[in-house]
Write a structure and sequence with these properties.
The chain is mainly alpha-helical. The longest helix has 29 residues, at 1290-1318.
Length: 1450
């Protein structure tokens, strides 16, 4: 019999081994009695008699023991028979001895371990479906249980190393099962000891069974002992980790022991196999408490790395094919891994569903991650799982995801890895994924909407047919919702899915086709996307079963084209052209089959007939025709038309264009026919002959707009064709693209570059005001048409290689800048003018020019005059205007006007009054410049200083840009990049905007992807760097010539303004490029490296394979060199923002100090305009706010800097004169004080909020450091609050009340716990801190009184919350005193209301209700020495309930 005290491991193993061998030998020596098979055991032993009396008949062989009575009755009868036996208690020993003798036979022992058989004739209504074994029935009898347990443990070693018998029974497991679920255990400690001793020497399989059976065997009182023994075993035997943890999860454990085991398991987590992981995670989550949940989950998510344990389905498929050739079992292993993963996440799902603390801790742990690299696939997967199983956390997870996505912490690569790695897990939460995606698409932030679209995309790509159908249905629902942002992103996803997996999307084409019923609600760009999707589904390869889509598309297009309403005709035109593109693309990709030629020929006929249909249906409407030309041109630009179709288009378009817009230069219109003198202007041909060509612009416009009013009679003959000048630019774009695609160059139409236009004198000077409104409107229309013509000409010929052609293109650019300045003058005196449309993909023509009949023009045959023929010259119509700055926006217009000198203001006062209109508001009425135009930036820069007095120099023979033309190109490029590459986290969508307004004027640009635009800009970086260096050199030379004086006599104000604007735009372009979020994607890494190499090579030619860190460092150094020459504060801010973007891509810490130093240099610099005035205004204040935030965020000590500015800079400002500035910080003036004050208050509050609250477990040194930090923060807060006594304007008070409350709240949360346990050791420091803070809270109370007296709603809105916070502060200090046994130092007193200057408010009774006459004051006296002082160190105002109620009514 085992002893009750636990043996040592060695004694254990020796004793049990000896016992086992002894028993075996004895059993071999004893002669076995041969029992007859399948017979009833009959003998005179007390064991057999007592069993038979109680109701059990023993059987031999394969037969089960028979139970004649109910189990409980048997136990009762046997127990009574033993107790009433004449030889009791010896009868018990005889019974046990008989049992031992009986079970010496293996078959008998087996029968005793198996369940008994109930005799049917004895069946009663109380029968149970399960009958226990004889041994288990005996264990239920108290006076037999200890002996039976002893016998079982003595018999068990005989079977330790036996495998499963022939009859399929595992004897050790059968013996262990007898001990499970006993109703009562007489000696639980002894039983536990025996089991643990047996575990120590049993083989691994039996150890596993014994351990997992422990919760079903031992009683609750033994849980602690068992847990300690198992934890010790866990440290020595890692192979038993899983069963041990499985058991520990079912036991009631001591928290300290639980924490110990959890730490032990967590340390081994990274080495655990995937099979064992579910049990281990189950234990860890089971061991979590509310207090340590966050700590445990944070550590778990760091240690749990499943990506290296399992393969994505795609890799599994490919590897299983390779392995199947040599190893058949590879597929089973992969399936097992997936099963383990599914089981693991089932465990996690169960935990987060039923344990709120775990789900909240997991969300909080993910929320606390503040680095992109620290986010794991598991984080995103857990958010999706919690979102699906915990409805209470849905809003919280949506908010968390929005914040993470907006911050750029969840890139697309992470989402893709999540779907591809955990497809089986995500399939179970698919409905929640759709719900989350739908919710995110309702956001107003573009980055969040894009993330929602990615959920749809990867759900479709990862799941099978049923789930794909649900995704398509959800996307179609978004398209039909009418919400502009949802429609855009849903169509974008559908387009991408069509490209990625056309065959899968085609299965659900009927759903997509249903969108045709909702065309009225779609914008032109959306219609274009929809028809692209449908065309791909209908006309791509394998479309034999898509004829129904083709038929529906044809019906819709014909119906829309036949409509007289422009909106519906627009749908037809866009749909038809999009369908032509898909049809042509399909014919191009047709294989070289024998019938391929016939198919291509038939398809070309279909394309041609459809184009003819569109042409005939749109020719009666100028706007429809222009839209048709533009859409057609975009299609040709993509190269989607076959050569045969291009030939037909060229012949038709070329002839029609000549007939409509080109006339002989010799046939000058008669002056008598028109109210204006018609002249051929802006010709570039040096030949004086008059046999060239000209663009017949003015006569066409005059006939269209002013024919009836001017008395010009027009007639329509049968051979006349309707033409509108509105179609001139779109028609030319179509013509030149067709010629370029067909011939590879523009030689056939190069005569249109330098040919003049029929116009009239436009620059009338002082006579402009004497014109009638109708004449001014006509000339405005003429100017818009001329500018748009020149824009399209520049688009067409910008890539010509010859110097002559480049020079002409630059001249056209100069014409554009001159005409735009002239147009500003016209628009200033024609306020009600509505320009002609230049972009026609609009939903409606409302707000456009009035509809008028097109002008009939007789067809003329000019076959002998090729458009590319002789080069002609205009009739001396070149107008030379001084170069001026094109207005960028309203604020810059105002800024540029203030920059002029007083003398120039007087000279140009009238001009400035007239030219106060900015063309920024008219961008949609100008033709869009192509990206290729910016290749002109490769030309050098020609400034005024290089020209002589007659504007002639040898340098003009070299193709060079002038500053106005450079600024014009940079402005346009900046707008394009802002539209395409702006960081998605900062671009927001406003649903109340007009549909399509965001992309209006960027139709051609949006035919390209953001990657294409970024790639093109990287190619332009070298010329852009050249221009940036030219600007740097220009201002460096200017500063040298004027000895650093910006307003010196040698400074040309107008030129300075243009060059400064160019400098700003260049920095802005660089900033937009390097801020592009696409650089964070792996596929764009090489593009970013190429961009950085361009900057790095400007310093020195480095190694082509230089690492990223080196390139970033050299790029930073290169850009930093420009800080010496920045001409304006706005340029300085753009430069430092650019440097920040570069430094954020690098891990170098030294850049932080450089940025802080540079920001301080800019803040301490005097920014003077060329006219001698300081820079100021709202724009300057905004940029000052940005720069000051940059400076304080990157400074080593924010508190010292705030104290320096508030304690040194502001007093200098107070002592200076009214218009002066601080000598330490020249940017600090009375106008900018509010900016400085707001930033300092915000950064002060932010700095203390980010400081971790102190705990009693921290070291004394940490306590002292935090106490010192809070002392400095409170001192700074007091300095800032007291500035209100001098600067008492309403905005300053508003900032003070807002951030004052936030600071006090942070003080209560972060500082008061520190003071609780620091009060005894640092009593004087705590007293000093609270005394200083009390001065600030008292001043805040005075501000509340001031706000109430003046009844300023913007201020009084802050008062209730602030007073509540001040009240909390008082009682929190009282709690701290009680905690430190100083409660006697707390007493009450009265405090009078005072104003900002500390004067008592005497008129309070007359102005306020009687409930506000007196105000209670809770005063805390922190030391006995301070009790006699007039004011206490911890005094704060707390109003009565009545007062708070009156305040809320005010």
């Amino acid at each position: 019999m085992f002893g009750k005290r636990r043996l040592s491991r060695l004694e254990d193993r020796k004793s049990l081994t000896e016992d086992c061998s002894t028993k075996k030998n004895e059993s071999n020596k004893k002669p076995r009695r041969s029992l007859a098979q399948d017979e009833v055991v009959e003998n005179d032993s007390a064991f057999v008699k007592l069993l038979k009396t109680a109701g059990v008949t023993l059987k031999t062989g394969e037969k089960q023991n028979q139970l004649a009575v109910d189990q409980a009755i048997f136990q009762k009868k046997l127990s009574q028979a033993l107790r009433k036996h004449s030889s009791y208690p010896k009868a018990v020993e005889e019974f046990i001895s008989g049992l031992e003798s009986y079970i010496e036979d293996r078959d008998c022992f087996r029968n005793c371990l198996l369940s008994c058989e109930r005799l049917q004739e004895e069946e009663t209504s109380m029968a149970t479906p399960y009958y226990k074994s004889l041994i288990k029935l005996l264990l239920g009898i108290d006076n037999l249980q200890p002996a039976v347990i002893r016998i079982l443990f003595e018999k068990l070693p005989e079977f330790l190393y036996e495998s499963v018998n022939n009859d399929g029974l595992n004897m050790p497991r059968l013996i262990i099962n007898q001990l499970k679920w006993l109703d009562r255990i007489i000696d639980g400690k002894d039983l536990t000891t025996k089991i643990l001793q047996l575990i120590s020497i049993a083989p691994l399989t039996l150890q596993h069974d014994l351990i997992t059976s422990l919760p079903e065997i031992i009683g609750d009182s033994q849980h602690g002992d068992v847990a300690r023994e198992l934890s010790d075993l866990l440290m020595t035997n890692t192979t038993l980790t899983v069963p041990i943890l499985d058991v520990l999860s079912s036991l009631r454990l001591d928290p300290k022991l639980l924490s110990k085991v959890r730490h032990l398991v967590m340390a081994k987590l990274s080495a655990v196999t995937l099979d064992n992981l579910p049990v281990i995670i189950k234990f860890i989550l089971h061991a979590v408490t509310v207090t340590d949940a966050l700590e445990v989950i944070s550590e778990l998510r760091k240690k749990l790395d499943l990506e290296h344990c399992i393969l994505p389905p795609q890799l599994q498929t490919s590897q299983s094919k390779l392995k199947s050739k040599s190893q058949v079992s590879s597929g089973n292993q992969e399936n097992s891994d997936q099963d383990c993963v599914s089981l693991l996440f089932d465990v996690i799902k169960s935990a987060v569903r039923y344990e709120r603390a775990i789900s909240e801790a997991w969300i909080k742990a993910i929320e606390n991650i503040d680095s992109v690299s620290d986010h794991k696939v598991l984080d995103l997967l857990m958010l999706l799982i919690i979102y699906s199983v915990n409805t209470q956390s849905k809003k919280c997870i949506e908010r968390l995801l929005r914040n993470k996505v907006q911050s750029g912490f969840i890139p697309e690569q992470l989402l893709q890895s999540t779907f591809y790695t955990y497809t089986s897990v995500l399939r179970d939460v698919f409905p929640s994924i759709l719900s989350l995606a739908q919710s995110l698409l309702h956001s107003t932030d573009q980055s969040v909407i894009s993330f929602g679209s990615l959920l749809y995309k990867y759900a479709f790509m990862s799941f099978d047919t049923y789930y794909q159908q649900e995704v398509i249905g959800a996307l179609v629902t978004h398209v039909c919702s009418g919400n502009d942002a949802e429609v855009d992103i849903a169509l974008e996803v559908l387009s991408e899915l069509v490209v990625l997996n056309l065959s899968a999307v085609r299965l659900y084409a009927v759903f997509v086709k249903g969108i045709l019923d909702y065309l009225d609600n779609l914008t032109p760009s959306q219609i274009r996307k929809l028809f692209y999707i449908l065309s791909m589904l209908a006309f791509s390869k394998g479309h034999e079963d898509s004829s129904h889509i083709q038929d529906d598309m044809y019906l819709v297009i014909r119906k829309q084209l036949s409509s007289t309403v422009f909106k519906y005709k627009l749908i037809g035109i866009i749909g038809a052209i999009t369908m032509v593109g898909s049809m042509a693309a399909d014919s191009d990709t047709s294989g070289p089959a024998p019938d391929g030629a016939e198919l291509s020929s038939e398809r070309c006929k279909q394309v041609t007939s459809l184009l003819q249909l569109v042409h005939s249906c749109s020719e009666q409407s100028p706007q429809a025709s222009a839209l048709y030309y533009d859409e057609f041109a975009n299609l040709i630009a993509k190269g989607k038309l076959p050569p045969r179709t291009l030939e037909w288009i060229e012949q038709t378009i070329c002839n029609d264009f000549q007939d409509a817009f080109v006339v002989d230069l010799s046939a000058l219109p008669k002056v008598s026919d028109y109210p204006f003198p018609v002249k051929a202007l802006y010709g570039l041909d040096e030949d004086d002959s008059q046999d060239g060509i000209a663009i017949n612009l003015l006569p066409l416009l005059l006939h269209q707009d002013l024919g009836s009013d001017m008395g010009v009679m027009t007639s329509r003959d049968q051979d006349q064709k309707l033409v509108s000048p509105v179609c001139l630019s779109p028609y030319f774009r179509l013509l030149r693209l067709c010629v370029e695609k067909q011939h590879g160059d523009l030689e056939e139409i190069d005569g249109l570059l330098d040919c003049p236009l029929y116009l009239t004198d436009l620059d009338l000077g002082e006579k402009l005001g004497s014109l009638s409104v109708q004449e001014r409107s006509f000339r405005c229309s003429l100017l818009f048409l001329v500018i748009n013509w020149f824009r399209e000409v520049v688009n067409a010929f910008c890539q010509q290689k010859s110097a002559e052609m480049k020079g002409k293109v630059l001249i056209r650019l100069r014409h554009i800048t001159e005409l735009q300045m002239l147009l500003e003058k016209y628009l200033a005196v024609t306020p009600d003018y509505v320009p002609l449309l230049a972009n026609f993909d609009l939903e409606t023509l409302d707000g456009g020019p009035h509809s008028s009949a097109a002008v009939p023009v007789k067809n003329k045959k000019k076959g002998e005059k090729a458009l590319g023929g002789r080069k002609r010259k205009a009739d001396g119509g070149k107008s030379s205007s001084p170069e001026r700055l094109s207005k960028e926006d309203g604020s810059e217009c105002e800024h540029s006007q203030s920059d002029k000198s007083q003398l120039e203001k007087e000279v140009t006062e009238k001009e400035e009054e007239k030219a106060s209109v900015s063309l920024q508001n008219y961008t949609t009425f100008f033709r869009e410049l192509d990206l290729e135009v910016f290749s002109i930036l490769q030309c050098g820069l020609l400034t005024k200083s290089l020209l002589d007095t007659e504007m002639h120099t040898e340098a003009t023979e070299v193709v060079q840009l002038g500053p106005p033309e450079l600024l014009f190109l940079l402005n346009d490029l900046s707008q394009k990049l802002e539209n395409m590459l702006v960081p998605t986290a900062t671009k927001r969508i406003f649903f109340l905007k007009n549909k399509g307004s965001r992309n209006l004027g960027f139709s051609h640009l949006h035919q390209r992807s953001a990657q294409e635009v970024a790639h093109y800009l990287v190619l332009l970086l070298t010329p852009l760097c050249n221009h940036l260096e030219n600007m740097h050199n220009y201002f460096q030379c200017l500063a040298t010539e004027n000895h650093g004086v910006m307003d010196g006599p040698g400074v040309k104000i107008q030129e300075h303004q243009i060059m400064s604007s160019c400098y700003q735009r260049l920095l802005q372009i660089f900033l937009t490029l390097f801020s592009w979020g696409g650089f964070s994607q792996a596929e764009n890494r090489n593009l970013m490296l190429a961009a950085l190499k361009v900057l790095a090579n400007r310093l020195k030619q480095g190694d082509q394979g230089a690492p990223l860190a080196e390139l970033l460092g050299q790029s930073f150094h290169y850009l930093q060199n420009f800080h010496h020459s920045v001409p304006s504060f706005q340029c300085a801010v753009y430069l430092i923002r650019l440097l920040i973007v570069i430094s954020e891509k690098s891990a170098a810490s030294q850049n932080k100090k450089k940025l802080a130093s540079l920001a301080r240099q800019f803040l301490c610099q005097v920014w003077v305009q060329p006219n001698g005035e300081r820079e100021k205004g709202s724009s300057f204040n905004d940029h000052l706010h940005t720069l000051l935030c940059i400076y304080l965020e990157r400074a080593d000590s924010v508190l010292k800097l705030i104290e320096e500015i508030a304690g040194t800079g502001v007093p200098e400002l107070i002592k200076s004169s009214k218009d002066a500035a601080s000598s330490s910080f020249p940017t600090l003036t009375r106008q900018t004080f509010l900016v400085f004050f707001r930033v300092m208050m915000a950064e002060l509050e932010k700095s203390v909020r980010n400081l971790q609250a102190g705990t009693a477990a921290d070291s004394p040194k940490v306590h002292e450091e935090k106490l010192l930090y809070w002392s400095m923060a409170v001192r700074d807060f007091n300095i800032l609050i007291n500035l209100v006594k001098v600067f008492d304007s309403r905005p300053v008070l508003n900032v003070c009340l807002k951030y004052g409350r936030l600071f006090v709240e942070t003080f209560l949360k972060q500082c008061m716990p520190l003071l609780d346990f620091s009060f005894r050791k640092h009593r004087e420091d705590v007293l000093s801190l609270l005394k200083t803070f009390q001065l600030s809270t008292r001043q805040l109370h005075h501000m509340c009184g001031h706000s109430k007296i003046h009844q300023d709603m913007s201020l009084t809105n802050h008062v209730p919350l602030l007073k509540k916070t001040l009240e909390l502060f008082v009682y929190r200090v009282k709690a701290m005193l009680i905690l430190n046994n100083c409660q006697e130092a707390f007493w009450l007193g009265n405090l009078k209301n005072r104003d900002l200057q500390g004067e008592e408010i005497l008129s309070q009774q007359s102005q306020e209700s009687s409930g506000d006459e007196n105000q209670k004051e809770v005063t805390s006296q922190l030391s006995k020495q301070q009790e006699t002082e007039e004011g206490s160190a911890d005094e704060a105002s707390v109003g009565e309930n009545e007062e708070d109620g009156n305040e809320s009514d005010d």
